Amino acid sequence: MDRKGYETAAREIYDLLKEYAKSNREEMTESEKVLWNALRDNIQGYRFRRQHAIGQYIADFVCLPARLVIEVDGGYHQSPEQQEMDNIRTNYLEEKGFHVVRFSNEEVSANIKGVIQIIKDELIRLEEQSE
Description:
Blueprint: E1 2-3, E2 6-7, H1 14-26, H2 30-39, E3 49-54, E4 57-63, E5 68-73, H3 80-95, E6 99-104, H4 105-110, H5 112-130
Parallel strand pairs: 5-6
Antiparallel strand pairs: 1-2, 3-4, 4-5
């Protein structure tokens, strides 16, 4: 389903994704909370959504106008199986026109200012590309 150029959830599993997204918003990790508190300030004038369904996936954070997805990965993302699943997910999102940036929980917790600077730089780069 595509509305006003924004990719939304796969229609056939929308209700399930909506429930997962709601649950994820209510049970965010500490790192996700830290990042959300920084992202909700409209970085570079862009608004982010948290736990937003795109196709069959739920992005941790997304800026729809910039087509930027931010993922915060916990320790389990280090397993080979999870890395393969993350690559499949990233490829899907990129095929849909999104750019994906990943941070570890540790990066967010230890260096939120650096993480926000990377996101700002990415927003500027994507804005320049679209001109």
